[in-house]
Write a structure and sequence with these properties.
The chain is an all-alpha fold. The chain has one domain. The protein is built from five helices and no strands. Helix 1 packs antiparallel against helix 2, helix 1 packs parallel to helix 3 and helix 2 runs parallel beside helix 5. The longest helix is centred in the first third of the chain and has 29 residues. It starts with a helix and ends with a helix.
Amino acid sequence: MNLKIFFILALGGIMGTIFRYGFIFYSVKIWGTHFPWGTLGINVIGSFLMGCFVALFNKFIDLPLELKLFLTTGLLGSFTTFSGFSFDFMNLWQQGMIYQSFFYILLSVFLSLGAVFLGYSIGRL
């Protein structure tokens, strides 16, 4: 890996992490901590944006590799969070919120998959 790509990925990672922290911070302020709305929102938004980006990359194939890596691996890779999703599920489960924990899995999977398809469809326009 060349140094330029390394720094581009790092910059995207820093930005995605800051966006994720801000999103979760304000989600907790708005909706509280009874359900992990912040992590759910992050993963759905990230999936939607990934779909948009992939469609745009297919449409404009001459975009620089560095831009593609910055947006997908760097920015979205650090913005979305499967480990956060897993932790939130475990946390709901350990609190005895069994139905909510499975509802969270269903929402996360189906909304994220729907969002990536929607983003891809919009990006192809």
